[in-house]
Predict the 3D structure of the following.
Amino acid sequence: MGVEGCTKCIKYLLFIFNFIFWLAGGVILGVSLWLRHDPQTSELMGLQLDDKPAPSTFYIGAYILITVGAVMMFVGFLGCYGAIQESQCLLGTFFACLVILFACEVAAGIWGFINKDQVTQEMKAFYDSAYTSATLPPLLGDPLSGKKEKAEGVLKVFHETLQCCGTNKVTQTILLSKGLCPKSDTFLNQLTQISCHGRIDELFTTKLYLIGIAALVVAVIMIFEMIFSMILCCGIRNSSVY
């Protein structure tokens, strides 16, 4: 004979929440893989300038999310199985894993809030460095003339991927005169293209908001799961069957 009454209701609630948690882990895993392989970010992160790669902070965050999603799926399965089997050992292990995951999520949230602008600032600096290298007039016979061509290639990738040009009207005019801006249907559209700094902000801020919403939902689910798992553990311990 297993648990009865309200504790039995808690058992099935815990199973349902764990199933949702398992699904959330799958969603986070899928979203993080999409963030890692999204065509826009992949194009930008794969760039190199003077043999220096584009900032990798965003990819580091994506790899962390991939790991978190996989762990969440494992822990969710562990919780589902432990609830159905009414196993104190499995539920205790599940609770310990939840506490560790919750602590890691809080720490990651604090780190992300402190460094939320780092990804965009690094990418803007990378773009500005490419712009400087591409627009400086090369000296006669300068052996670094190939550097300018590589920088122009980097700018073209930025412009075509984000459909932007320059950082203000002056830089847009300079880049337009060099033929480095994306081609538009009309001359007016060519002169009023969106700033690349704005596009970079838009690209990464949108993705960070998605991550933040997912993390908040998961944190709420984890709190309920920790409460339910402790109640169920106590109910199993107090039941007549061990």
Summary: The chain has two domains: 6-116+205-238, 120-197. Residues 51 and 101 are 38 Å apart (CA to CA).
